[in-house]
């Protein structure tokens, strides 16, 4: 430092080059050139280059007029929201646009674009900016209505903007379960669509109203939801669209309607109403399979979800409509296809479905790409692929020594070598999920969880115990990796773990997992899981066999039955005055009602009150399971218990008991339900002894029972061998005592 001072050097930084100013003409030329380049890049599907052009226009070096700068910022924000996770940056550009256009008269379309972009940003940010989201959509809607009056020649454009903001406002109200406000917005949009004769828009609003009614019922606010009326209005709207544009062009709308109708029926436990749905949905899905979103938009008059999401949801619902019928091979096929669609979409988004080490995943993927490049070069017969040189893991050729002992030139070393593929940034946990990626990935994560739940149920009914346990671990991995995004599905994972433990005879542990599922459903939803978890917990308590278990089981089931009775009363109170039909939206889920009656009846049998109290409840459960739920497993179990009651109480009149037990056994055998088969065989053996049947027939039954029991015990032992897995399933994952991170709003990630 002394030497520098002695020579007269200073420590001052070098002087900055003065910023060059541009004339008005130069600024206009630069603006036009960069806007032209950005537009060309967008058309060539090069969004990042377009972003750079727009960002150059937003620099302080250029002094633009408010409107041109606002145009550039709106386009920049749109690209950032569509292709990147820079939601905060997009919001800043749009807020700057608001300031630029504040005192500018006219330019309503540009202002509507700004309000629309801001509303999208606020939606991604979650609950903390709810009022900002509402203000943006309200301001945009008001502006579009004013512009419609101001520019009557452009009415169609401004009505389209009104539709956009109405649907956005309805979506906001749906997110916050304000169903009455959502219905007001959707009804207004539907009326405007009818007035303007826009059949495609009318279908969109009609289907949205049906979706609102289904969501309202699922949220426990069924009375007055008007699901039947909404379904009829949606059917009429789709029929009108088909008449206007043809069945082929309206196929996505028809598929959307069938998916929503199936969703509503399954939410009501009415599997009987979905009997013809799988064939219809399969035909409609074929009309969109293999097409891109752009191709569907060009070929069809209506576009709903992205192709993969549409197919995944359709396959999930058809699989769930087939599963209660015991059609497990078809159900598994559809549910696994739904998972495949979700996995493909999540891979495209860079999201690991079950979490994991994102860096390790990126390295593995990069190595796979390098290997593919090498294989392609060897196939083409390039010099580097003929063994003349070796390629290092970093994609560079190791230098060969020349005859003189020196390495070849660097240019010769890397000749014919492909560029090193970049590492992809993967998401392996909740903390890695940026707002836009979280929003795009959420539907696929939800569908994947529900598909796994359906597969666990099918596997357990068919006594595939080890496979069910493995799928349960997949569900737990998903919930632990994305606890806030999937917080509403924590109860689903707990319930699946309880089912597995109950099937393995670990009834005390199963009851604990069912209790955890009920508690998680109470805190985070879904509400329907609270009741079914309590019912299944009661069944595990009964299987435990102690007097205390019977009492706890009844304590769990009685509140569920009381809620069902209250819902029945509400349905009667809301009956149509003209037809006298009950309010279907207020009725309890038929499957849950049948399960609660079954467990209550079984508890009465264990108590010893079989004839007086158990049989009426089991008979009602059987009727619901047969006519509405179409649940073959529940039908078989109810027949078995009623047949046993008849066997115990009727003495010599055994024909009715025999018919019931044989029917139960036939259904259980078709479903490969080995525990149910063994229970039926026990009762049949006792019946044949009472009847004094031929000894040879009895011996055959005993031998068959022994073989079945041996096979079942082998399956149970195989599933129990993995003690570490059982310990993980028993312990579950996130507990309510440690669930602080789940309390954070799911939209903040």
Instruction: Give Rg in angstroms.
Output: 32 Å
Helix segment tally: 32
Shape: globular
The fraction of residues assigned to DSSP E strands is: under 5%
Molecular structure report:
The protein is mainly α and 749 residues long. Helix content is 71%, strand content 0%. The protein is built from 32 helices and no strands. It has helices spanning 2-6, 24-43, 47-57, 66-83, 87-101, 108-125, 130-150, 155-175, 179-196, 199-218, 227-245, 251-267, 277-286, 293-299, 307-322, 328-349, 358-380, 410-413, 435-461, 465-481, 490-503, 507-524, 527-544, 547-573, 590-607, 610-629, 632-649, 655-670, 674-691, 695-720, 723-731, 740-743. Helix 6 runs parallel beside helix 8. The longest helix is centred in the middle third of the chain and has 27 residues, at 435-461. It is globular, with a radius of gyration of 32 Å. The model is unreliable at 1-13, 15-19, 384-415 and 734-749 (pLDDT under 50).
Care to give the gist of this entry?
The protein is 71% helix and 0% strand. The protein has helices at 2-6, 24-43, 47-57, 66-83, 87-101, 108-125, 130-150, 155-175, 179-196, 199-218, 227-245, 251-267, 277-286, 293-299, 307-322, 328-349, 358-380, 410-413, 435-461, 465-481, 490-503, 507-524, 527-544, 547-573, 590-607, 610-629, 632-649, 655-670, 674-691, 695-720, 723-731, 740-743.
């Amino acid at each position: 430092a002394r030497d520098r001072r002695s020579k007269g050097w200073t420590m001052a930084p070098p002087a900055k080059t003065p910023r060059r100013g541009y004339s008005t003409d130069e600024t206009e030329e630069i603006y036009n050139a960069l806007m032209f380049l950005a537009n060309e890049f967008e058309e060539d599907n090069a969004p990042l280059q377009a972003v750079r052009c727009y960002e150059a226009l937003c620099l302080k070096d250029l002094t633009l007029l408010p409107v041109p700068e606002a145009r550039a910022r709106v386009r920049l924000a749109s690209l950032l929201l569509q292709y990147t996770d820079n939601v905060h940056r997009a919001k800043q550009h749009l807020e700057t646009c608001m300031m630029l256009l504040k005192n500018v008269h006219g330019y309503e379309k540009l202002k509507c674009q700004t309000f629309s972009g801001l509303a999208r940003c606020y939606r991604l940010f979650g609950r903390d900016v709810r009022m900002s989201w509402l203000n943006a959509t309200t301001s945009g809607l008001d502006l579009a209505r004013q512009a419609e009056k101001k520019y009557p020649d452009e009415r169609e454009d401004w009505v389209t903007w009104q539709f956009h903001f109405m649907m956005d406002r309805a979506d906001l109200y749906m997110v916050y379960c304000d169903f009455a406000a959502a219905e007001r917005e959707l009804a207004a949009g539907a009326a405007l669509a009818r007035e303007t004769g826009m059949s495609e828009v009318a279908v969109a609003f009609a289907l949205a109203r049906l979706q609102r009614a289904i969501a309202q019922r699922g949220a426990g606010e069924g009375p007055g939801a008007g699901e039947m009326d909404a379904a009829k209005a949606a059917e009429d709207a789709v029929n009108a669209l088909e008449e206007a544009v043809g069945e082929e062009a309206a196929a996505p709308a028809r598929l959307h309607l069938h998916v929503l109708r199936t969703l509503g029926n399954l939410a009501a436990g009415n599997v009987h109403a979905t009997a013809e749905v799988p064939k219809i949905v399969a035909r409609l899905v074929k009309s969109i399979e293999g097409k891109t979103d752009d191709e569907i938009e060009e070929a069809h008059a209506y576009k709903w979800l992205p192709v993969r999401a549409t197919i995944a949801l359709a396959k999930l619902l058809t699989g769930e409509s087939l599963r209660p019928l015991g059609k497990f091979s078809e159900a598994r096929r559809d549910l696994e296809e739904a998972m495949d669609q979700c996995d493909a979409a999540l891979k495209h988004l860079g999201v690991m479905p079950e979490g994991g080490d994102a860096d390790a995943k990126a390295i593995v993927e990069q190595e796979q790409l390098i290997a593919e490049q090498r294989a392609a070069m060897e196939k083409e017969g390039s010099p580097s692929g003929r063994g003349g040189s070796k390629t290092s893991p970093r994609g560079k050729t190791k230098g060969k020594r020349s005859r003189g002992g020196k390495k070849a030139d660097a240019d010769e070393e890397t000749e014919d070598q492909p560029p090193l593929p970049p590492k992809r940034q993967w998401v392996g946990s909740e903390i890695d999920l940026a707002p836009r990626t979280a929003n795009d990935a959420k539907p696929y994560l939800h569908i994947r969880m529900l598909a796994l739940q359906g597969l666990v149920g099918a596997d357990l009914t068919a006594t595939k115990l080890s496979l069910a346990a493995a799928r349960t671990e997949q569900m737990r991995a998903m919930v632990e990796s994305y606890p806030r995004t999937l917080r509403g599905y924590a109860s689903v994972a707990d319930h699946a773990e309880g089912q597995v433990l109950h099937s393995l005879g670990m009834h005390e542990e199963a009851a604990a997992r069912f209790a955890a599922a009920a508690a998680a459903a109470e805190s985070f939803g879904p509400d329907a899981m609270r009741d079914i978890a309590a019912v299944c917990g009661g069944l595990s308590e009964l299987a435990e066999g102690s007097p205390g278990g019977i009492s706890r089981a009844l304590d769990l089931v009685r509140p569920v039955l009381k809620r069902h009775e209250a819902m029945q009363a509400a349905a009667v109170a809301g009956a149509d005055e003209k037809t006298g039909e009950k309010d279907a939206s207020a009725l309890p889920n038929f499957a849950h009602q049948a399960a609660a009656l079954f467990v209550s009846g079984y508890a009465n049998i264990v108590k010893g009150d079989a004839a007086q109290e158990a049989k009426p409840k089991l008979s009602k459960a059987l009727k619901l399971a047969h006519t509405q739920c179409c649940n073959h497993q529940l039908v078989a179990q109810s027949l078995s218990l009623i047949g046993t009651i008849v066997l115990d109480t009727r003495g010599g009149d055994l024909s009715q008991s025999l018919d019931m037990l044989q029917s139960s056994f036939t259904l259980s055998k078709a479903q490969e339900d080995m525990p149910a088969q063994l229970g039926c065989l026990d009762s049949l053996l006792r019946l044949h002894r009472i009847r004094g049947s031929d000894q040879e027939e009895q011996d055959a039954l005993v031998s068959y029972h022994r073989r079945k029991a041996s096979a079942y015990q082998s399956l149970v032992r195989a599933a129990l061998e993995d003690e570490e897995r059982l310990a993980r399933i028993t312990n579950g994952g996130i507990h309510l005592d440690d669930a602080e991170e789940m309390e954070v709003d799911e939209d903040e990630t």
